[in-house]
Amino acid sequence: MSKLCYIYARKSVDTGKGESIENQIALCKSYMTSSLSDKDIRFIIYTDKGFSGKSTDRPQFKKMYEDIRLCRPDFVVCYRLDRISRNVGDFAGFSEYLERCNTAFVSVNEKFDTSSPMGKAMMYITSVFAQLERETIAERVRDNMHMLAKTGRWLGGTAPMGYTAVKDCSVIMEGKAQSASRLKSVPAELDIVREMFEKYLETKSISAVSKYLISQNITSKNGKDFSLPGIKEILQNPVYCIADEDSLEYFRSCGSDVCFDESCFDGKSGLISYNKRDYSKGNSPRQTRDKWIIAAGKHEGIISGSDWAAVQKFIDLSRPTGKAPAKMHNDYALLSGMIFCGKCGERMFAKIHSGARLSHGNFSYICSKKLRGGTAHCDCPNLPGKSTDDAVCRQLLKYADKALHIDDLAQRLCNEVISSTSETERLRCAVAECERKAGNLLTAVSSGNAGEALLAHISSELEKLDVRKMQLKEKLDSLEAAYCWENSCAEQPEELAAALSSFSGSYEDMTVYEKREMIGILADRMTWDGERLRIFIK
User: Can you give the pTM of this predicted structure?
Assistant: First the structure.
């Protein structure tokens, strides 16, 4: 009787060591052929290359998982247990799933299968040790960070504003002399950073710092205006903080792993931070300060511990709590973010008049570039908010009343959704690829065999991947936000056409958010050049 056998092979990093995917498949076939002699065996192969065993979120593994449910194979075979997963919980769930599907699991290297009670027991024992190995790897990564932190070295990557990386010293690591990098000051850039901290302590506002920098024609390394996230990143970077009593007390109070003490207080040395991001998770999120490792560096610090701690306090207090809506999602301005400045191309947002009451409609639409840098950056006149909303709505209501080509408009919107879905999927794949590469690099670090040069290279590559992923995520978030309302419309174009046809009749009963949605359906964009507001109909 023919037997259906699924073979699963995985290789996280192609190092030239260990069993290749091809060898794993060959060994699995050989083992099953000898174990099931005189029987016809049909093999189906699933392989995941470049994916670690920390989770089961792998394309071919998920495909095999679904195929097991549909086809109920006799066996699932792998060369070694950890090819499936290093996590006990994941593996236990997979084993129970196979049992429900009446499918036996065979591990060639451990030489057991779940068709016997002893094999099932041994499989669980082995999976426990696989998870222990995974946790030990995590400990080794952290131990490596501790070892590096004690030297206060710069591991590579793009140097922060105010510094450049130089290799000019040696350290003894595991009995070997190896080169090390440190940060060297760039005085002109550090003067800019000082101004940022001083202005923030004065105004308690990142936007105010941005306006000040623009008014003074102060730009970043690439000659562009500093972005708000870029300014915030600088203000939160411990690299500028001096290793003194206040900074020591601050990081200890945060629960950070502090690797410097009073002996480092020279009034000059800055701090180096490690483990600020969790590269094992999607988007590499910034970790809380209790996960950071802080050491005294070999570079010059410029901000006292007390001032740096004060800046962090104000930034933490200004962080959104989620209790109030963001300004760009206010409940009074219909066209905020929908109008583009005809002079510089930036979006225009609603700004409340000083001391005004919202119920009176006292707000204007102002170019975001002008909002940040004043008229020196863009001199496009503001638009009166309430009267602009009314004028645009009157024009769109007239257009909707004609009910001309509504079905065509609905279909065109559906086609736009299809196009955007393709681009969204491409961006998601690119983000996943960045995360996969970052995971592979972390696996290389965890081996414990990485030399100093390799560690520096890995750190540099991780930073590049992080920047690339953030850029992709921004594009993805923007695309998803732009088309989130269209997805529901695309599913039922008849309902969309009906809604557009009855727009004028139901307009007065709509909420601000519903009105915005309908305006977005009818209008492609709007531009204001200081004299004329143009509405581009879809």
Answer: 0.49
Is residue 153 assigned to a domain?
A: no
Contacts of 94 (CB under 8 A, 6+ apart): 56, 65, 84, 85
- Any domain includes 156: no
- Strands (DSSP E) contained in 312-372 are 339-341, 347-352, 363-367
Cα angle, residue 474 at apex, residues 472 and 513 outer, rounded to 5°:
145
Residues 28 and 65 in one domain: yes
Query: Which one-letter DSSP state was computed for residue 445?
Result: H
- The answer on 494 and 349 residing in a single domain is yes
* DSSP-derived pairing of the beta strands 104-107 and 112-113: antiparallel
Q: Are strands 339-341 and 523-528 parallel, antiparallel or unpaired?
A: parallel
Kindly report, residue by residue over 298-329, the tens digit of the pLDDT: 899 999 999 999 999 999 887 654 444 344 45
Looking at the fold, whether 387 and 530 belong to one and the same domain comes out as yes
The β-bridge partners of 274 are 293
Give the up-direction half-sphere exposure of residue 487: CA atoms within 13 A in the CB hemisphere: 10
Q: What is the residue range of 16's domain? A: 3-143
Query: What whole-number distance in Å separates Cα of residue 241 and Cα of residue 247?
Result: 7
Residues forming beta bridges with residue 106, ordered by sequence position: 77, 113
